[in-house]
Design brief:
alpha+beta; seven-stranded mixed sheet; acyltransferase activity, transferring groups other than amino-acyl groups; GNAT_dom; Acyl_CoA_acyltransferase; N-acetyltransferase domain-containing protein
C-alpha cells in the first residue's frame, strides 16, 4: 500500500523523530473516550506529551495520516524482542472525523510491511473489549483474536521479508521524505 488515494484525501507516510510535536498534537486532539480506547486508560495531557516524546525511541516506527500537513491518524510499531522470533506491538489512533474511510486499513497495511521487513514474526495489538473498531480492523487482516475480561489481544503472523517487500518500503520511504517536506512547507506557510 504505497500512496493509495483515500476516500477522505490525504496521505499515509512515515513520521520522523523531529515530528514528535505533530504526533503529540494529534493525540491531544483525541476526545477523552478516544484517548481511553487508544491507551487503555484515561490519559492526561501530560501523559500524552510524555508518550509522544518517547514514542520514537527504541527503534519504533510510526506512520501517520496527514491532510493538508496536519497529522490526523497514526500507527505505532514497537519491536519487543530482537532475537528470533521477533515480536512487535502495534497501536492506532484516528481522529473521529476520519474514521470509516480506509485510514485505519492503510495505516495497518503500511505498518505490517515495515514489521515484515524487520523480521517480525508476530505482531500483537491490545485493546479494550469496548474497542470494536480496532477488533474489526484486526480481523480484517486475519489476526487471531483472544478475549479476556480486561482486554482483547489480536495476534497476527507475518511472512518474512522478500526482495519485493523491501523494495516497496524503500520506494515508500523516498516518497515519504518528499511528502514530509511538502507538509513542512504547508505548515510554514500557515504559520507565516
Amino acid at each position: 500500500m504505497m500512496h493509495e488515494p483515500l476516500s477522505v484525501g490525504g496521505v499515509i507516510r512515515k513520521l520522523w523523530t523531529g515530528e514528535a510535536p505533530l504526533y503529540r498534537d494529534h493525540l491531544l486532539r483525541l476526545a477523552p473516550d478516544d484517548r481511553r480506547l487508544r491507551f487503555g486508560l484515561d490519559a492526561t495531557d501530560q501523559s500524552i506529551a510524555e508518550h509522544a516524546a518517547k514514542a520514537f525511541g527504541g527503534g519504533a516506527v510510526i506512520h501517520g495520516f496527514f491532510i493538508d500537513g496536519v497529522l490526523r491518524g497514526a500507527a505505532e510499531l514497537h519491536i519487543l524482542k530482537s532475537p528470533p522470533p521477533v515480536e512487535a506491538e502495534i497501536a492506532f489512533s484516528v481522529e473521529a472525523e476520519y474514521r470509516k474511510s480506509g485510514v485505519g486499513s492503510a495505516l495497518f497495511g503500511r505498518t505490517l510491511l515495515v514489521a515484515r521487513n524487520r523480521g517480525v514474526a508476530t505482531v500483537t495489538m491490545n485493546c479494550l473489549p469496548s474497542n470494536r473498531p480496532m477488533q474489526s480492523l484486526a480481523k480484517k487482516f486475519e489476526a487471531k483474536i483472544h478475549y479476556n475480561l480486561a482486554d482483547v489481544i489480536g495476534e497476527l503472523k507475518t511472512p518474512g521479508p522478500t526482495p519485493l517487500s523491501i523494495w516497496r518500503e524503500m520506494v515508500t520511504d523516498g516518497t515519504d521524505i518528499a511528502a514530509s517536506l511538502m507538509d513542512a512547507q504547508v505548515r510554514a506557510l500557515r504559520a507565516g
